[in-house]
Amino acid sequence: MIKNNLLLTALFTAACGSAFAQTESFDLNSQRGEKQDVNMVPGKLLDHHGIVVNPTPHNLNMDMQTWTDLSAGVKLIDKAGKFTNDIDFLKQNAKGTPLTIVFGEKQAKKAGLKKMVSGAYLLTVDKKGINIVGYDERGAFYALQTLRQIVESPAAQGKVPALTCNDYPDLPLRGVVEGFYGEPWSHQVRLSLIDYYGRNKLNEYVYGPKDDPYHSCPNWRLPYPPEQAKNIHELVEAC
After folding, report:
1. Model pTM above 0.85
2. How far is CA 23 from CA 17, 20, 147, 167, 177, in A?
3. Distance between CA atoms of residues 155 and 47, nearest Å
4. Residue spans of alpha helices (H) in the chain
5. pLDDT at position 219, please?
6. Exposure check for the chain: N or C terminus, fewer CB within 10 A?
7. Number of Cβ within a 10 Å radius of residue 94
8. Whole-angstrom Cα distance, residue 188 to residue 172?
9. What is the residue extent of each domain of the chain?
10. DSSP secondary-structure letter at 3?
């Protein structure tokens, strides 16, 4: 079951000897005091009468006069059995509003997705319920993140407007490189950020902190100690 559809990439320095020789006479301490800024997710944030979605979808049409009440919960119809753990923002109820999730190229073409790329999806809400069609599993997951943002918007109040959202990513790789000098992020911070990346439809996290002693000279050939290796495994699973 998908938590966050991210790709964890580890970068390793092969030219260790030459890199070490170049930095022997260079004081890296001047760089380690740099201020680290965490900026907002790129993209234009639009407020649709109190419904906030970011990054802004390519196509989002809403009928603010027609609302579906979700206070009784939703009935998940997920034939692939992939998304039970991804709708924790909604109460599940066998008698609730139907929430149907399917994905696959054949289903995507039939539904009329605007672009057939990984991460594309169509999200609709009408009197019959909520329907999600993803080009692939990632696309269906992204549709749930859009639905989450709509449900958690100030204007929602336990309801969602009738809408059609036909969306897809512009870039195949969207993410963050942890490659700075100075104290690396803690394991808990990384797990928290991976959750944040997934909710904002990012799909790439590069692990490359310069001051990880097992990621640089002279220890880059050595295996990670068991505890650190366990943490990296947990990052992969979270992604």
Report:
1. no
2. 10, 5, 49, 46, 22
3. 10
4. 16-23, 29-32, 105-111, 137-151, 187-199, 226-238
5. 87
6. N
7. 8
8. 27
9. 46-167
10. S
Report the candidate in 180, 187, 201 with the shortest Cα–Cα distance to residue 229. Answer: 187
CA angle, residues 176, 137, 157, in degrees to nearest 5: 80
Which tokens hold the place of 208? 């490359």
Amino acid at 8: L
Closest CA to 162 of 202, 189, 124: 124
Q: How far apart are CA 159 and CA 142, in angstroms?
A: 20
Q: Hey, which CATH number is domain 46-167, 3.30.70.1130, 1.20.210.10, 3.30.379.10, 3.10.180.10?
A: 3.30.379.10
SS3 at position 123: strand
* Tokens (6 digits) for 12: 């390793």
Q: Which residues of the chain have pLDDT under 50?
A: 1-2, 11-34, 36, 41
3-class state of residue 98 by DSSP: strand
Q: Extract the runs of DSSP E, i.e. beta strands, from the chain.
A: 7-10, 46-48, 51-53, 60-69, 74-77, 97-103, 121-126, 129-134, 159-167, 175-178, 204-207
Q: How far is CA 56 from CA 42, 75, 84, in A?
A: 10, 27, 26
Q: Which amino acid is at 114?
A: K
